[in-house]
Write a structure and sequence with these properties.
6 strands; about 180 residues; 5 helices; alpha+beta; homodimer; 6-stranded antiparallel beta sheet
Protein backbone atom coordinates (compact mmCIF):
# COMPACT_ATOMS: atom_id res chain seq x y z
CA UNK A 1 0.00 0.00 0.00
CA UNK A 2 2.80 2.40 0.94
CA UNK A 3 4.51 1.66 -2.36
CA UNK A 4 1.35 2.43 -4.35
CA UNK A 5 0.83 5.74 -2.58
CA UNK A 6 4.48 6.69 -3.18
CA UNK A 7 4.13 5.81 -6.84
CA UNK A 8 0.98 7.86 -7.21
CA UNK A 9 2.62 10.87 -5.60
CA UNK A 10 5.65 10.49 -7.86
CA UNK A 11 3.48 10.29 -10.97
CA UNK A 12 1.37 13.22 -9.83
CA UNK A 13 4.52 15.26 -9.15
CA UNK A 14 6.05 14.54 -12.53
CA UNK A 15 2.74 15.23 -14.24
CA UNK A 16 2.43 18.44 -12.27
CA UNK A 17 5.88 19.64 -13.29
CA UNK A 18 5.20 18.82 -16.92
CA UNK A 19 1.81 20.53 -16.79
CA UNK A 20 3.30 23.56 -15.03
CA UNK A 21 6.13 23.86 -17.55
CA UNK A 22 3.78 23.54 -20.48
CA UNK A 23 1.41 26.08 -18.99
CA UNK A 24 4.14 28.59 -18.14
CA UNK A 25 5.61 28.31 -21.60
CA UNK A 26 2.19 28.53 -23.21
CA UNK A 27 1.27 31.61 -21.16
CA UNK A 28 4.46 33.38 -22.11
CA UNK A 29 3.69 32.97 -25.80
CA UNK A 30 0.00 33.70 -25.38
CA UNK A 31 0.59 36.92 -23.47
CA UNK A 32 2.83 38.65 -26.00
CA UNK A 33 1.46 40.35 -29.10
CA UNK A 34 2.25 38.70 -32.47
CA UNK A 35 4.85 40.46 -34.64
CA UNK A 36 5.95 42.80 -31.82
CA UNK A 37 6.17 40.57 -28.73
CA UNK A 38 4.71 43.27 -26.50
CA UNK A 39 3.32 42.12 -23.13
CA UNK A 40 0.98 43.93 -20.74
CA UNK A 41 3.09 46.38 -18.70
CA UNK A 42 2.61 46.03 -14.94
CA UNK A 43 0.59 48.76 -13.25
CA UNK A 44 -0.46 50.61 -16.40
CA UNK A 45 -3.97 51.26 -14.99
CA UNK A 46 -2.30 53.56 -12.44
CA UNK A 47 -0.29 55.55 -14.95
CA UNK A 48 -1.00 59.23 -15.46
CA UNK A 49 -3.82 60.13 -17.81
CA UNK A 50 -3.00 61.52 -21.24
CA UNK A 51 -6.53 62.10 -22.49
CA UNK A 52 -10.01 60.64 -22.92
CA UNK A 53 -12.09 60.20 -26.05
CA UNK A 54 -15.18 58.63 -27.50
CA UNK A 55 -15.50 56.33 -30.51
CA UNK A 56 -18.71 55.50 -32.27
CA UNK A 57 -18.74 53.00 -35.12
CA UNK A 58 -22.43 52.45 -35.85
CA UNK A 59 -23.39 48.85 -35.22
CA UNK A 60 -19.84 47.93 -34.21
CA UNK A 61 -18.48 50.02 -31.38
CA UNK A 62 -19.78 52.57 -28.89
CA UNK A 63 -16.94 53.34 -26.51
CA UNK A 64 -15.49 55.69 -23.93
CA UNK A 65 -11.72 55.54 -23.89
CA UNK A 66 -8.76 56.67 -21.82
CA UNK A 67 -5.08 56.86 -22.70
CA UNK A 68 -2.35 56.54 -20.07
CA UNK A 69 1.38 57.12 -20.29
CA UNK A 70 4.36 55.88 -18.31
CA UNK A 71 6.56 58.67 -16.96
CA UNK A 72 8.70 58.88 -20.11
CA UNK A 73 5.62 59.20 -22.30
CA UNK A 74 3.93 61.80 -20.07
CA UNK A 75 7.10 63.93 -19.99
CA UNK A 76 7.34 63.81 -23.78
CA UNK A 77 3.68 64.75 -24.20
CA UNK A 78 4.00 67.74 -21.87
CA UNK A 79 7.22 68.99 -23.39
CA UNK A 80 6.10 68.29 -26.94
CA UNK A 81 9.07 65.98 -27.53
CA UNK A 82 8.92 64.30 -30.94
CA UNK A 83 9.91 61.53 -31.50
CA UNK A 84 9.05 59.94 -28.17
CA UNK A 85 12.11 58.57 -26.33
CA UNK A 86 12.88 54.86 -26.18
CA UNK A 87 11.07 53.33 -23.24
CA UNK A 88 7.96 55.48 -23.61
CA UNK A 89 4.77 53.44 -23.41
CA UNK A 90 1.22 54.54 -24.16
CA UNK A 91 -1.74 52.47 -22.95
CA UNK A 92 -5.33 52.85 -24.14
CA UNK A 93 -8.28 51.31 -22.34
CA UNK A 94 -11.55 51.06 -24.25
CA UNK A 95 -14.83 50.55 -22.41
CA UNK A 96 -18.35 50.22 -23.70
CA UNK A 97 -20.31 53.47 -23.34
CA UNK A 98 -23.61 52.98 -21.51
CA UNK A 99 -26.32 55.42 -20.39
CA UNK A 100 -26.45 55.94 -16.62
CA UNK A 101 -30.08 55.76 -15.57
CA UNK A 102 -29.06 56.66 -12.01
CA UNK A 103 -27.31 59.83 -13.11
CA UNK A 104 -30.09 60.75 -15.52
CA UNK A 105 -32.70 60.61 -12.75
CA UNK A 106 -30.64 63.02 -10.65
CA UNK A 107 -29.89 65.31 -13.57
CA UNK A 108 -33.53 65.41 -14.73
CA UNK A 109 -34.42 67.92 -11.99
CA UNK A 110 -31.85 70.66 -12.55
CA UNK A 111 -31.03 69.78 -16.18
CA UNK A 112 -34.08 68.51 -18.10
CA UNK A 113 -33.07 66.36 -21.06
CA UNK A 114 -29.58 65.72 -19.72
CA UNK A 115 -27.95 62.46 -20.74
CA UNK A 116 -25.13 60.91 -18.79
CA UNK A 117 -23.03 58.11 -20.25
CA UNK A 118 -20.57 56.13 -18.18
CA UNK A 119 -18.20 53.24 -18.80
CA UNK A 120 -19.76 49.80 -19.02
CA UNK A 121 -17.48 46.79 -19.36
CA UNK A 122 -13.88 46.85 -20.55
CA UNK A 123 -13.54 45.93 -24.25
CA UNK A 124 -9.81 45.84 -24.87
CA UNK A 125 -6.53 47.50 -24.02
CA UNK A 126 -3.86 48.59 -26.47
CA UNK A 127 -0.21 49.48 -26.04
CA UNK A 128 2.44 51.33 -28.02
CA UNK A 129 5.99 50.68 -26.85
CA UNK A 130 8.82 52.85 -28.16
CA UNK A 131 12.06 51.12 -29.10
CA UNK A 132 13.62 52.84 -32.08
CA UNK A 133 15.97 49.95 -32.87
CA UNK A 134 13.79 46.92 -32.18
CA UNK A 135 10.80 48.41 -33.99
CA UNK A 136 12.67 50.44 -36.63
CA UNK A 137 10.44 49.05 -39.38
CA UNK A 138 7.28 50.41 -37.74
CA UNK A 139 8.23 53.94 -36.80
CA UNK A 140 10.01 52.79 -33.66
CA UNK A 141 6.78 51.53 -32.10
CA UNK A 142 5.76 48.04 -31.05
CA UNK A 143 2.00 47.52 -30.90
CA UNK A 144 -0.29 45.26 -28.88
CA UNK A 145 -4.03 44.72 -28.55
CA UNK A 146 -5.36 42.57 -25.69
CA UNK A 147 -8.86 41.33 -24.98
CA UNK A 148 -9.47 39.56 -21.66
CA UNK A 149 -5.71 39.42 -21.15
CA UNK A 150 -5.06 37.69 -24.47
CA UNK A 151 -3.45 39.35 -27.47
CA UNK A 152 -5.29 39.58 -30.78
CA UNK A 153 -4.03 37.56 -33.76
CA UNK A 154 -1.36 38.38 -36.30
CA UNK A 155 -3.84 39.71 -38.85
CA UNK A 156 -5.15 42.23 -36.32
CA UNK A 157 -1.66 43.38 -35.39
CA UNK A 158 -0.75 43.83 -39.04
CA UNK A 159 -3.28 46.67 -39.14
CA UNK A 160 -1.73 48.71 -36.29
CA UNK A 161 1.11 50.49 -38.02
CA UNK A 162 -0.61 51.24 -41.36
CA UNK A 163 -3.51 52.76 -39.41
CA UNK A 164 -1.12 54.97 -37.40
CA UNK A 165 0.78 56.12 -40.52
CA UNK A 166 -1.31 59.27 -41.05
CA UNK A 167 -0.07 60.57 -37.68
CA UNK A 168 3.56 60.31 -38.85
CA UNK A 169 4.30 63.98 -38.11
CA UNK A 170 3.29 63.36 -34.49
CA UNK A 171 5.44 60.23 -34.25
CA UNK A 172 2.44 58.04 -35.18
CA UNK A 173 0.50 59.02 -32.05
CA UNK A 174 -3.07 60.23 -32.51
CA UNK A 175 -3.76 61.24 -28.91
CA UNK A 176 -3.01 64.77 -27.77
CA UNK A 177 -2.45 65.63 -24.11
CA UNK A 178 -5.59 66.93 -22.36
CA UNK A 179 -4.70 69.98 -20.32
CA UNK A 180 -6.17 70.69 -16.91
CA UNK A 181 -8.35 73.81 -16.62
CA UNK B 1 23.07 110.03 -3.51
CA UNK B 2 23.80 106.88 -1.54
CA UNK B 3 21.15 107.83 1.00
CA UNK B 4 18.51 108.38 -1.72
CA UNK B 5 19.22 105.01 -3.29
CA UNK B 6 19.02 103.33 0.11
CA UNK B 7 15.73 105.07 0.82
CA UNK B 8 14.28 104.01 -2.53
CA UNK B 9 15.29 100.41 -1.95
CA UNK B 10 13.77 100.53 1.51
CA UNK B 11 10.50 101.96 0.17
CA UNK B 12 10.45 99.47 -2.69
CA UNK B 13 11.07 96.62 -0.27
CA UNK B 14 8.33 97.70 2.11
CA UNK B 15 5.95 98.27 -0.80
CA UNK B 16 6.90 94.89 -2.17
CA UNK B 17 6.19 93.17 1.10
CA UNK B 18 2.85 94.96 1.45
CA UNK B 19 1.90 94.15 -2.13
CA UNK B 20 2.96 90.53 -1.70
CA UNK B 21 1.01 90.19 1.54
CA UNK B 22 -2.09 91.76 0.03
CA UNK B 23 -1.82 89.60 -3.05
CA UNK B 24 -1.24 86.40 -1.10
CA UNK B 25 -4.15 87.18 1.18
CA UNK B 26 -6.38 88.15 -1.75
CA UNK B 27 -5.47 85.01 -3.68
CA UNK B 28 -6.16 82.82 -0.69
CA UNK B 29 -9.72 84.15 -0.49
CA UNK B 30 -10.29 84.10 -4.21
CA UNK B 31 -8.95 80.58 -4.64
CA UNK B 32 -11.06 78.86 -2.00
CA UNK B 33 -14.61 77.74 -2.67
CA UNK B 34 -17.40 79.59 -0.84
CA UNK B 35 -19.07 77.74 2.05
CA UNK B 36 -16.40 74.99 2.11
CA UNK B 37 -13.09 76.82 1.74
CA UNK B 38 -11.71 74.12 -0.57
CA UNK B 39 -8.66 75.10 -2.65
CA UNK B 40 -7.23 73.39 -5.75
CA UNK B 41 -5.07 70.48 -4.53
CA UNK B 42 -1.54 70.50 -5.97
CA UNK B 43 -0.82 67.92 -8.64
CA UNK B 44 -4.36 66.57 -9.00
CA UNK B 45 -3.98 66.26 -12.81
CA UNK B 46 -1.42 63.52 -12.14
CA UNK B 47 -3.60 61.53 -9.74
CA UNK B 48 -4.77 58.06 -10.69
CA UNK B 49 -7.87 57.81 -12.85
CA UNK B 50 -11.14 56.69 -11.28
CA UNK B 51 -13.31 56.74 -14.40
CA UNK B 52 -14.41 58.69 -17.45
CA UNK B 53 -17.87 59.74 -18.54
CA UNK B 54 -19.81 61.86 -20.96
CA UNK B 55 -22.45 64.49 -20.21
CA UNK B 56 -24.84 65.94 -22.74
CA UNK B 57 -27.24 68.71 -21.73
CA UNK B 58 -28.79 69.83 -25.02
CA UNK B 59 -27.94 73.45 -25.70
CA UNK B 60 -25.94 73.76 -22.49
CA UNK B 61 -23.17 71.21 -22.17
CA UNK B 62 -21.47 68.61 -24.35
CA UNK B 63 -18.59 67.21 -22.35
CA UNK B 64 -16.07 64.44 -21.91
CA UNK B 65 -15.07 64.06 -18.28
CA UNK B 66 -12.49 62.31 -16.13
CA UNK B 67 -12.41 61.71 -12.38
CA UNK B 68 -9.18 61.37 -10.46
CA UNK B 69 -8.50 60.32 -6.88
CA UNK B 70 -5.68 60.92 -4.45
CA UNK B 71 -4.21 57.72 -2.98
CA UNK B 72 -6.71 57.55 -0.12
CA UNK B 73 -9.65 57.89 -2.51
CA UNK B 74 -8.30 55.33 -4.99
CA UNK B 75 -7.69 52.80 -2.22
CA UNK B 76 -11.25 53.26 -0.94
CA UNK B 77 -12.72 52.89 -4.44
CA UNK B 78 -10.81 49.67 -5.07
CA UNK B 79 -11.63 48.14 -1.72
CA UNK B 80 -15.22 49.36 -1.77
CA UNK B 81 -14.71 51.28 1.49
CA UNK B 82 -17.77 53.31 2.45
CA UNK B 83 -17.68 55.97 3.83
CA UNK B 84 -14.48 57.31 2.27
CA UNK B 85 -11.77 58.05 4.86
CA UNK B 86 -10.92 61.57 5.96
CA UNK B 87 -8.35 63.02 3.58
CA UNK B 88 -9.79 61.37 0.49
CA UNK B 89 -10.13 63.79 -2.42
CA UNK B 90 -11.89 63.28 -5.73
CA UNK B 91 -11.21 65.60 -8.66
CA UNK B 92 -13.31 65.84 -11.82
CA UNK B 93 -12.12 67.58 -14.97
CA UNK B 94 -14.73 68.48 -17.56
CA UNK B 95 -13.73 69.25 -21.14
CA UNK B 96 -15.82 70.19 -24.14
CA UNK B 97 -16.43 67.22 -26.45
CA UNK B 98 -15.44 67.96 -30.05
CA UNK B 99 -15.38 65.82 -33.19
CA UNK B 100 -11.88 64.93 -34.38
CA UNK B 101 -11.78 65.49 -38.13
CA UNK B 102 -8.23 64.09 -38.21
CA UNK B 103 -9.28 60.84 -36.57
CA UNK B 104 -12.43 60.57 -38.67
CA UNK B 105 -10.42 60.78 -41.90
CA UNK B 106 -8.21 57.90 -40.75
CA UNK B 107 -11.14 55.84 -39.50
CA UNK B 108 -13.18 56.36 -42.67
CA UNK B 109 -11.12 53.74 -44.52
CA UNK B 110 -11.38 50.74 -42.18
CA UNK B 111 -14.54 51.88 -40.34
CA UNK B 112 -16.96 53.75 -42.62
CA UNK B 113 -19.24 56.05 -40.64
CA UNK B 114 -16.99 56.05 -37.59
CA UNK B 115 -17.12 59.15 -35.42
CA UNK B 116 -14.31 60.08 -33.06
CA UNK B 117 -14.79 62.70 -30.37
CA UNK B 118 -11.91 64.10 -28.37
CA UNK B 119 -11.51 66.66 -25.61
CA UNK B 120 -11.65 70.30 -26.68
CA UNK B 121 -10.98 72.99 -24.11
CA UNK B 122 -11.21 72.54 -20.34
CA UNK B 123 -14.53 73.81 -18.92
CA UNK B 124 -14.15 73.44 -15.17
CA UNK B 125 -12.74 71.26 -12.44
CA UNK B 126 -14.58 70.08 -9.34
CA UNK B 127 -13.36 68.65 -6.06
CA UNK B 128 -14.86 66.68 -3.17
CA UNK B 129 -12.73 66.70 -0.03
CA UNK B 130 -13.56 64.31 2.79
CA UNK B 131 -13.42 65.67 6.34
CA UNK B 132 -16.10 64.06 8.45
CA UNK B 133 -15.85 66.68 11.22
CA UNK B 134 -15.34 69.89 9.27
CA UNK B 135 -18.03 69.03 6.74
CA UNK B 136 -20.36 67.04 9.02
CA UNK B 137 -23.37 69.02 7.77
CA UNK B 138 -22.79 67.95 4.16
CA UNK B 139 -22.13 64.23 4.46
CA UNK B 140 -18.52 64.79 5.43
CA UNK B 141 -17.67 66.31 2.06
CA UNK B 142 -16.45 69.78 1.15
CA UNK B 143 -17.17 70.79 -2.43
CA UNK B 144 -15.52 73.12 -4.93
CA UNK B 145 -16.05 74.13 -8.54
CA UNK B 146 -13.38 76.12 -10.34
CA UNK B 147 -13.41 77.76 -13.76
CA UNK B 148 -10.14 79.24 -15.05
CA UNK B 149 -8.68 78.79 -11.57
CA UNK B 150 -11.45 80.77 -9.87
CA UNK B 151 -14.16 79.24 -7.69
CA UNK B 152 -17.83 79.61 -8.60
CA UNK B 153 -20.07 81.74 -6.40
CA UNK B 154 -21.94 80.82 -3.24
CA UNK B 155 -25.20 80.12 -5.07
CA UNK B 156 -23.45 77.55 -7.27
CA UNK B 157 -21.85 75.85 -4.28
CA UNK B 158 -25.18 75.67 -2.48
CA UNK B 159 -26.30 73.22 -5.19
CA UNK B 160 -23.46 70.69 -4.68
CA UNK B 161 -24.64 68.73 -1.68
CA UNK B 162 -28.37 68.58 -2.51
CA UNK B 163 -27.45 67.29 -5.96
CA UNK B 164 -25.23 64.56 -4.46
CA UNK B 165 -27.89 63.50 -1.92
CA UNK B 166 -29.36 60.73 -4.11
CA UNK B 167 -26.00 58.92 -3.96
CA UNK B 168 -26.15 58.80 -0.14
CA UNK B 169 -25.75 55.01 -0.03
CA UNK B 170 -22.46 55.39 -1.90
CA UNK B 171 -21.26 58.15 0.43
CA UNK B 172 -22.62 60.81 -1.96
CA UNK B 173 -20.25 59.79 -4.76
CA UNK B 174 -21.77 59.15 -8.19
CA UNK B 175 -18.64 57.87 -9.93
CA UNK B 176 -17.83 54.16 -9.89
CA UNK B 177 -14.30 52.86 -10.41
CA UNK B 178 -13.59 51.84 -14.03
CA UNK B 179 -11.85 48.49 -14.06
CA UNK B 180 -9.06 47.65 -16.45
CA UNK B 181 -9.77 44.83 -18.94
Amino acid sequence: MKRIVFLLIAVATVAGVVAFTASASGDADEQASPIYGVTIPAGYRDWKLIAVDQLLVPGKADQLRAQFGNDLAIKAFREGTIPFPDGAIIAAIHWTRVPSEDNNKVLAGPFPGAQSFVVGSPVNVQFMVKDSKKYAATGGWGFADFKDGKPGDKALHETCFPCHMPAKDRDYVFTRYANAP
